[in-house]
Amino acid sequence: MFIDEVKISVKAGKGGDGCLSFRREKYVPKGGPDGGNGGNGGSVIIKADRNTGSLLQLRKIQSYKAKKGQPGKGGNKQGLYGDDCIIEVPIGTIVKNINLNRTIADLTTDEEEVVVAAGGNGGRGNKAFASAVNQTPREFEYGTAGEEFELYLELKLIADIGLIGLPNAGKSTIVARTSSATPKIADYPFTTLEPQLGLVSVTEQSSFVIADIPGIISGAHSGVGLGIEFLKHIERTKCLAHIIDLVPNDGSDPFENYKIIENEIKQFSEELANKKRIIIGNKIDITGAKEAADKLEKQIGCQILKISAVTGENLNELKYKFLNAVN
Ligand SMILES: Nc1nc2c(ncn2[C@@H]2O[C@H](COP(=O)(O)OP(=O)(O)OP(=O)(O)O)[C@@H](O)[C@H]2O)c(=O)[nH]1
Ligand SMILES: [Mg+2]
Predict the structure, then answer these.
(1) Separation of 256 CA from ligand 1 center, angstroms?
(2) Are residues 287 and 182 part of one domain?
């Protein structure tokens, strides 16, 4: 299952209390104050990690606590600091603080981190209160509480290329044939219900990520079919590949189908509509597909890449075209 949002609670550690203590030594009848300060409590930190693929793990454990600071001790010993609690999330995770009702981070690079709940401060021990006029202070402070919040985490997928097209166009077949992902493929519409990412390795050094998303149909922007909510997952892609079935089962016209998708994308957002486009004619192995492709090229007014996701024809060209588009 593809998880892209989760609610968690975080609690930072309390600061350690300050210590009340006086020095006791042989031959020193009245030792001075020597109560140390408490250690600060640990903080809860959220950190982007390139090896974490989803928020699934956070769904299993929904509550996170950092360690409390240790109390100060006699002999002017500072209490130990509490350990931080570090939560690793995929790059592209947006963190919202529900209690404060605001977005606190948008983690877009590896190892970027944000403190989501600050640890409490350690209290001062009585040594810290000593002064010329008060050489035997009995005051000390308690450590303060750590912050505690409810958070909402949302993952916006960062794929390089987003595949768009009508249901059944062959998007998942392309992803299955070119990438590490294993999406479900079937000869009925809406096989893909949730976005999925696949890593495409072209050479040993070069790779990119493609996103398979559910098919879009006419009226999707007003909720028809699966709607277009999932388009938010490809808002950050560098390029959209529009997959067109050259010989649709239902006898519909590829050019009309092309326009339906482009129109729905435009209704969703201008920004998405303005993204670079690669037009792919799929199912070139079927009789009549080559003629349909030539006709479509004239109608759209640009060259399209003709492939067969099933026989593999031109899939290598497709990989290089995608790679060029993202670099
Ligand atoms: N002949 C032929 N069939 C293909 C080709 N590519 C995909 N298909 C078939 O078309 C059907 C739909 O393929 P999918 O990959 O599931 O299509 P999709 O675009 O992901 O569909 P949705 O997830 O429903 O939006 C399947 O039966 C595939 O086997 C192709 O190049 N040639
Ligand atoms: Mg699919």
Answers:
(1) 19
(2) yes
